[in-house]
Amino acid sequence: MDKNQSLHAYIKDELLDRIKSEKYKKGEQIPTELELCEEFNVSRTTVRTALNQLTLEGYLERHQGKGTYVADQKVSQTLSHTFKKYKDQVAVQGKKAEITLVTINVIPANELLLNKLEVELNDPIQRIERVRKVDGEPTQFEIAYIPWTVAPGITKEHAETSLYGAFKDVFGVHIAKTTEQMEITLADERTCAHLKCQPDSPCFYIETIAENEKGEKVEYSRSYFRGDKTNFVIERFYPQD
């Protein structure tokens, strides 16, 4: 458990992983509060806080007298693409961008990463936490997962410059496609610690899966953007009849 996470935030993350890996499937009833209390060895108040947040964020539905169920999937929207790097996008707005590495380590692939990256259980995965800042103020906290076989030995310099640039220039990996899902979430203790915002502040949450030209998944990331500091532009092009 992250040192900046509370128990309810940890339980929330664990339950969210189970939902996203479809261990808990859409429409399925999840374990009762009492069962979760026993599993995580925590109080009912702690479990209830985690469930309330997941309900507020649209992952769970709570039915009085019947239990808690996995909610239906949210409606997906496609964001337009851009070839500009993060620092370049910020620079044209007259601001200075900075990327700071928080941690980088190698972890064994779990069930969630099996689903997201098409790897085998316990395969080595590089887990990279970074914070992006604009004019010295944090705006984005990102956790990226990259299989060791894709880009072995990612360094601090790679992480603080451009991961995708390192993919291309250092490891010979071409990012041909990214698939992104955007949601609204509330900042927990860990996110607040990195983004310097108040607990339960609204944040944009984006999950990204990057693929190479062969359709192989080379990166899975989770990013949290301060809602009071970030907006997104979506461009759509319509062909003439």
The rounded distance between the terminal residues' Cα atoms is 55 Å
The helix count comes to 8
Mean pLDDT: 90
Alpha-carbon Rg, integer: 19 Å
Detail the poorly predicted runs: none
Percent range for helical residues?
25-40%
Largest sheet: 6 strands, antiparallel
Protein name: HTH-type transcriptional regulator YbgA
Keywords: DNA-binding, Transcription, Transcription regulation
Pfam family, one: UTRA
InterPro entries: Bact_HTH_transcr_reg (IPR050679), Chorismate_lyase_/UTRA_dom_sf (IPR028978), Tscrpt_reg_HTH_GntR (IPR000524), UTRA (IPR011663), WH-like_DNA-bd_sf (IPR036388), WH_DNA-bd_sf (IPR036390)
Can you tell me about this structure?
This protein has 241 residues and is of the alpha+beta class. Helices cover 28% and strands 30% of the residues. The protein has a six-stranded antiparallel β-sheet with strand order 3-4-5-8-7-6. It has a two-stranded antiparallel sheet with strand order 1-2. A hairpin with a 2-residue loop joins strand 4 (124-134) and strand 5 (137-147). The longest helix is centred in the N-terminal third of the chain and has 14 residues, at 7-20. It is globular. The N and C termini lie far apart (55 Å). The model has no long low-confidence stretch (mean pLDDT 90). Keywords: DNA-binding, Transcription, Transcription regulation. GO terms for molecular function: DNA binding; DNA-binding transcription factor activity. Residues 5-73 form the HTH gntR-type domain.
Give a short synopsis of this structure.
By secondary structure, the chain is α+β, with helices and mostly antiparallel strands. It has helices spanning 7-20, 33-40, 44-56, 86-91, 111-117, 156-161, 163-169, 189-195, and strands at residues 60-63, 67-70, 97-108, 124-134, 137-147, 177-186, 202-211, 217-226. It starts with 6 loop residues before the first helix and ends in a 15-residue tail after the last strand.
